[in-house]
Amino acid sequence: MAHRLTGRPATEVRRSPASPAEVLLDDGTPVMVKRGGGDGAVRAEVAGLRWLAAADAVRVPAVLGHDAHWMVTERVHTGPPDPEAALRFGHALAALHAAGAPCFGSPPPDGPRDAFIGLAPMRNVPGSDWPHWYAEHRVLPYVRAAVDRGVLRPAEATVFERVCARLPELAGPAEPPARLHGDLWNGNVLWGADGEVRLIDPAAHGGHRETDLAMLRLFGCSHLDRVLAGYRQTAPLADGWRDRVALHQLFPLLVHVVLFGRGYAEQALAAARGTLAG
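Given the sequence above, the corresponding structure tokens read:
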């Protein structure tokens, strides 16, 4: 597969045949070979990586080859998380967001409207008003899917509907569309051995910059205080951003409810109730 997509013979598979797998090319270059998780997933990921790279801000692995179902990227040599790298990452993430997007919900250039976040479907439907767009395309679809799958009770769904009804007052000051990674949990943050962070596995789209930051907090990014310090040095956050963290975490939490079941439902409900109480 690596040979066909890169034009270079592969001499060794260093990990299991699972996806992704590390493959060594004939010149000694290690690469990652990954199979897409759904129809259009590779197209979405490749478009996302290239859109993030075009901002010349946060580093991402280069795409070395792909087809409809497989992609090959450079392998990142990782090291331990570092406070100074975290500060630089914060600066770079702010610059990535500031690169902007045409509108909320806009897909990357050449990216599909029907994309993915992890293995969950994610539709990139353009909108000009963040509170209404977030409710209609990032909260309510996953509430409905969770109810349909029986992992969220219909009575519990009303809690999220109440949040959505109040989103115009809860959202804080209006922000322009930011260029988001879109699935920024700690597992997608690679601490390079060269002291620079790379981001992998994006669900890139135009969104609110606080959503990326809230996801970093939700899943425990290393040196998050330093990341946020670097971010705020470059692009100060609007007043009240700490109070909105749970609001922005609703999206990834509901995705996890749909993908992984009832275990995340209580956490999502707590975030929704906390948002209403705040």
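The chain has a mean pLDDT of 94. Try to locate this feature in the token string yourself.
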